[in-house]
């Protein structure tokens, strides 16, 4: 366990569960997560985003259609139930292990594409959606900011390619201003992974060349290695093709999203500014509590 995590547990901000990457939070930590969510949400109010929420589980069929199981099967998790079998009310094994058809949501935006697809073609201005979800990724780790269950606050833009690019550019600027206001050290990095995943490095490297995924990295405390606190993704036609989402004039629609890791950003605030939010720098307090 890192010192920061031990100290946060001792202070009651984090609650250890004995499972790597599954962590409880005290009221003060939760309050900061909530306030950060309100700050991120303000942009949506100013820019006419539609806010929606979904449960942290979704249909396996939809997740497959998003391409997640092809790209990241190792991170995915399926929900199974138990039937009433010959061994009693709850049985495990082949006679009682039932598929629910549900999987854990791995990225908040994956719930959005089926919703938008069901509405039919996009008007010229496209769609702008704000959401957050508890996300699950099966990557147990003792690294403090790497969780299996975490919250992701996202904006998803669907529409003409140029509009999606402009949305992403705006957020790259906006997010840098946000982390500067939070007085956290950060840098941008050109990442790969996401939507095009396996089959292959070739695709990953082409994704990198095309700058499709940019991350904002923050060390959660002085001396820690930088970790991604948000990502700015341009998926081109990957999701829109999978969901047959088109523009009303039948031209191809593109999509992009920006995703904030709420626990990571909050950890960084505690890591850099101390364990008592009432003592955080004035500018940070002004933004979150002002
Ligand atoms: P991604 O879809 O991988 O770009 O994730 C979006 C954001 O979610 C990242 O920038 C992180 O802040 C956060 N995130 C992703 N994976 C994890 C994880 N294992 N633990 C905590 N936060 C995560
Ligand atoms: Zn996303």
Plain-language structure description:
With 290 residues, this protein is an alpha+beta fold. The protein has one domain: 2-Layer Sandwich (BirA Bifunctional Protein, domain 2). Helix content is 34%, strand content 26%. The protein contains ten helices and twelve strands. Helix 2 packs across helix 9 (262-273). It is globular and about 55 Å long. The model has no long low-confidence stretch (mean pLDDT 92). The structure holds adenosine monophosphate (AMP) and zinc ion. Residues 107, 109, 154, 233, 257, 259 line the site of zinc ion.
Under CATH at level 1, the class stands as Alpha Beta
**Ligands bound, unique:** adenosine monophosphate, zinc ion
CATH superfamily: Bira Bifunctional Protein, Domain 2
Question: What is the overall silhouette?
Answer: globular
Structural class: alpha+beta
| Spans where pLDDT lies below 50 across 5 or more residues | none
What layout of secondary structure does this protein have?
Layout: H1 3-10, E1 14-16, E2 23-25, H2 27-46, E3 50-51, E4 57-59, H3 60-65, H4 68-71, E5 78-82, E6 97-104, H5 112-118, E7 127-136, E8 149-159, H6 161-181, E9 187-191, H7 201-209, E10 213-218, E11 227-236, H8 238-242, E12 254-261, H9 262-273, H10 282-289
Parallel strand pairs: 3-7
Antiparallel strand pairs: 1-2, 4-6, 5-6, 7-8, 8-12, 9-10, 10-11, 11-12
Bound molecules: adenosine monophosphate and zinc ion.
Zinc ion binds next to strand 12.
Short characterization:
The protein is α+β, with helices and mostly antiparallel strands and 290 residues long. Helices cover 34% and strands 26% of the residues.
């Amino acid at each position: 366990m890192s010192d920061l995590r031990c100290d946060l547990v001792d202070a009651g901000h984090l609650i250890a569960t004995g499972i790597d990457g599954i962590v409880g939070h005290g009221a003060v930590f939760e309050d900061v997560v909530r306030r950060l969510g309100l700050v991120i949400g303000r942009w949506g109010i100013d820019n006419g985003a539609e806010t929606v929420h979904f449960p942290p589980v979704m249909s396996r069929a939809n997740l497959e259609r998003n391409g997640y199981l092809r790209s990241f099967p190792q991170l995915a998790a399926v929900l199974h139930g138990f039937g009433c079998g010959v061994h009693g009310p709850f049985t495990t094994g082949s006679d009682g292990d039932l598929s629910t058809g549900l999987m854990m949501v791995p990225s908040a935006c994956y719930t959005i594409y089926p919703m938008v697809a069901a509405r039919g073609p996009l008007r010229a201005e496209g769609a702008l959606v704000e959401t957050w979800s508890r996300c699950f990724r099966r990557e147990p780790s003792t690294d403090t900011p790497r969780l299996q269950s975490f919250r992701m606050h996202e904006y998803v833009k669907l529409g003409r390619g140029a509009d999606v690019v402009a949305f992403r550019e705006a957020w790259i600027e906006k997010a840098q201003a946000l982390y500067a206001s939070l007085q956290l050290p950060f840098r941008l990095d050109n990442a790969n992974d996401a939507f095009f995943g396996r089959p292959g490095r070739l695709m990953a490297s082409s994704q990198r060349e095309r700058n499709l995924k940019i991350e904002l990295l923050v060390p959660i405390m002085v001396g820690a290695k930088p970790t991604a606190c948000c990502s700015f993704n341009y998926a081109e036609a990957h999701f829109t093709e999978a969901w047959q989402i088109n523009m009303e004039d039948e031209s191809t629609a593109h999509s992009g999203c920006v995703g904030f890791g709420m626990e990571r950003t909050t950890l960084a605030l505690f890591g850099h500014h101390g364990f008592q939010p009432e003592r955080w720098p004035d500018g940070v307090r002004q933004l979150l509590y002002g």
